[in-house]
Amino acid sequence: MIRLTDLTIRFPGFTLDHISLHVRRGEFFALMGSTGSGKTLVLESVAGLTKPSGGTVRVGGRDVTRLPPEERNVSLVYQDHALFPHLTVLQNVMYGQRYHGIAKEEGRRQARELLDTLGLSRLENRRPEHLSGGEKQRTALARALACGPDVILLDEPLSSLDPQFRGELRRTLKHVHETTGTTFLMVTHDFADAMILAERGAVIKDGRLHQQDTVANIFRRPATPFTASFVGMTNVFPARYAQGCCTFAGHAFEGLPELPAWQTGFAALRPEDVFVGSAGDFPEGWRILRGTVERVEREGFTWTAVVHCGDQTLTALVDRHMVLSRGLESGSTVTLGFAGEHLHHMPEND
Ligand SMILES: Nc1ncnc2c1ncn2[C@@H]1O[C@H](COP(=O)(O)OP(=O)(O)OP(=O)(O)O)[C@@H](O)[C@H]1O
């Protein structure tokens, strides 16, 4: 449904560098990356609001690279909703329909149907200033859907919401996607949003595409150290591979499953896959590292131990009982264990 080929945009100090992406008809696709990575520029290129320096944009099989926004049949939902303050919810939703040749009565019927789907019926006469963040976002979504676009583009739809409304809007987005069958391209810096909503996605950093795959594969098998960190595999180490042995963090491990053929690369582990204990605590076959606790950190209900091993630092999730019963503190000598199949390997060419 959307096909970007070698999309390039050059600004002083930033280049969106030959991005090629394919979003299939009817799918929910998440474009992920941290702030300033170029996600919004990609959305704006699809919407026709930013002119590429090179490459092509195709929507629904048509080359739209040089078409104005109104001829692309895509709707962009902005992060700040961009609702008209002087119009009611219903009027906001109906606003764009006249430009799409939708007759008023039919438009009103469709708009009310959408308000119903989005749980906004009782608010149809309210103005935006009297809506919560989640209600504004749903109104903006209804307005985008009201013109029957081929594609909905969502710019960080959940980022400004508190956790309660976030969960609610996630469910709404999922429901609307499933019931309308419209193609959704969402930009987000939060991998959790992508995990819950999207089937496929892509990760972008500094204007370059790092990976494009199913969200499940990006989570399980990140292609680059950046993507690994982005999906929570935050222990990433330079590693050497030779004769069936993988060496990182000052330890050499033999007999690991599925060792890659390359000689240097990166090995990565999720903090939740690294356990603190004594050598005898770990199941047979687990790999062991020894290190010194640098610090124990608490974040809400979660505790992490940051441990020096060789010339690297490993982070392991620990529970409160472990911290107290073992007296884990800065300077403690600890043994860490992990299962070989949890170690993920990546080649060097980032
Ligand atoms: N019109 C412009 N002129 C110059 N630089 C621009 C322009 N628009 C965007 N940029 C730069 O391009 C880079 C990518 O911007 P973009 O808005 O796509 O990032 P993003 O990934 O969406 O970030 P965020 O999550 O913070 O919105 C940024 O460094 C930004 O400053």
Walk me through the structure.
The protein has 350 residues and is of the alpha+beta class. It folds into two domains: 2-225, Rossmann fold; 234-347, OB fold (Dihydrolipoamide Acetyltransferase, E2P) (Beta Barrel). The chain is 24% helix and 35% strand. It contains nine helices and 20 strands. It has helices at residues 39-47, 89-94, 104-117, 133-145, 163-180, 191-197, 215-220, 225-230, 320-325; strands at 2-11, 14-23, 28-32, 54-59, 62-63, 74-77, 151-155, 183-188, 200-205, 208-214, 235-242, 245-248, 251-254, 264-269, 275-277, 287-299, 302-309, 312-318, 333-338, 344-347. A six-stranded mixed beta sheet has the order 6-7-8-3-9-10, sandwiched between helices. A hairpin with a 2-residue loop joins strand 4 and strand 5. The longest helix has 18 residues, at 163-180. The two termini are 29 Å apart. The model has no long low-confidence stretch (mean pLDDT 91). Adenosine-5'-triphosphate binds at residues 11, 14, 33, 35-41, 189.
